[in-house]
Amino acid sequence: MYFYNNPNYMKQVFQGRYWAIERYISGFSNNAFLIACKRTRRSVIIDTPKNPDKLIKAASRYRVEAILFTHGHRDHVEGYEIVNDHFPVQAGIGEPDRTYLSNDLSVTINVETGNSIMIGDITLTPLFTPGHTPGSTCYLLESEKSLAESEPSHIFTGDTLFPGGPGKSSSNIALRQIIKSLESHIFPLPEKTVVLPGHGGFTTVGKSKNEYAHFASHPLDDSLYGNVTWIQSSSHKSNP
Ligand SMILES: [Zn+2]
Known about the structure:
This protein is α+β, with helices and mostly antiparallel strands.
């Protein structure tokens, strides 16, 4: 669904006053992100997919200080050992997803909701959004200074929210949990907040909320889960 014909490259997606964001796309259509503080050249990596050579090369221009995971699924963590060899820095993952990592020794960053992570001028606020996995966590990138200057805020949603729908759910209970997570933590954000998912293209909170409003106007089918889209709604049931 989210495949790209142009794998393995780094591309800048945002250049602001305080930080820049680059996206790395792996050969398996995963997005990883590199956030760099312009003042201090300190940086943060979000997710470590397979074949992270170009991510490592790009990140070597900065002083990497943290690796954060949106969740523990293999395609988002399988480059971790290689990245950690180059940048043996502290890492953070939603506690219930910690078991997905083969090496969790560097996991010392607390990514509970609201426990902001500050690196140089970069401020990332974790939002615990279980559903796609038990430990799925989104990260909101904004600071008092960036808000004061009306710089756009970004949210890294992993596989919790994509353009057009939530991430894959393994049961109806998981789907309901993901929706609850979105309603509590993502949809209340300002509409212009840019959504940077773990695969494919970007969207905004406002657009996602509009799509979701259509979905939420029908009762939620008890048999619905899997690759759910907001528009296809309750008659659609897909294989998990
Ligand atoms: Zn996933």
